[in-house]
Amino acid sequence: MSQVPAATRTLRVLRFLATQADPVPLDRIVRACELPRSTAYHLLNTMIDEGFVVHLPDEHRYGLGVAAFEVGSGFTRQEPLARLARRPLAELVDRTGHGAHLAVLHGRDVLYVVEERAPGRPPLVTDVGVRLPAHLTASGRAILAALPASQVRALYPDRSAFVDRHGKGPTSLSALRTVLSATRQRGHATEEGEVTPGLRSVAAAVLDHNGHPVAGVAVTFPGEVGTADARVVAEVKATAERLTRRVSGGARVVR
Q1: Which CA distances in Å does 180 have to 108, 170, 187?
Q2: Is the overall model pTM greater than 0.70, yes or no?
Q3: Residue 43, class by beta-carbon neighbours within 10 Å (0-12 exposed, 13-18 middle, 19+ buried)?
Q4: Residue 145 to residues 126, 186, 212, 236: CA-CA distances in angstroms?
Q5: pLDDT digits over 120-136, tens only?
């Protein structure tokens, strides 16, 4: 049991490094992971020894190592999340008549890992393997809204982090915080024409046993998000809750 806190801190550091576009200095890791400097330094040295982290001495920065890549590759090979999600997403499409997809956070983007198309509907931009800016997508907003504020701040340190597609969506951290606050209050995320003009999406986060968001479930359709779409919203949230139970092994998530 004495090793559990150290394991939790180690995973927190790895998760933070995985969200960064480039290697980062020690101070960024200390602030983002809320660790004492000495603890962060000790953990990083251990992870360097095991190949999970590399140190760039000339730049005084730390990044992910080859061992972390091997773990990620193993996940890609096994596709446990995608396997768990395919049937629930297919059933979501059957119940709503709209296309549905599952996305995971990849840096400041979301990466789409499962897409279920509705019969007779045109293909969407959210095909498997596509990456889109997380702050513009419903899936990304659902995930970001469930992250600690410090991690969101680390992902979006300045205005240059906010990619624009169609002139819509948040362009600053304060604007994004407003969007995420509304998302938490509603219990689901929305986007209206920010990814594809004329199309709307609603999404909900899938959580692990610690309440950490591991993915977002979304449905995309033409029209506006309002009272007429309450049934769609309910179905999306029910699917996300179903996947949360599967991912967390049936454990009850305490928020």
Answers
A1: 15, 10, 10
A2: no
A3: buried
A4: 20, 11, 11, 16
A5: 666 666 667 788 899 99
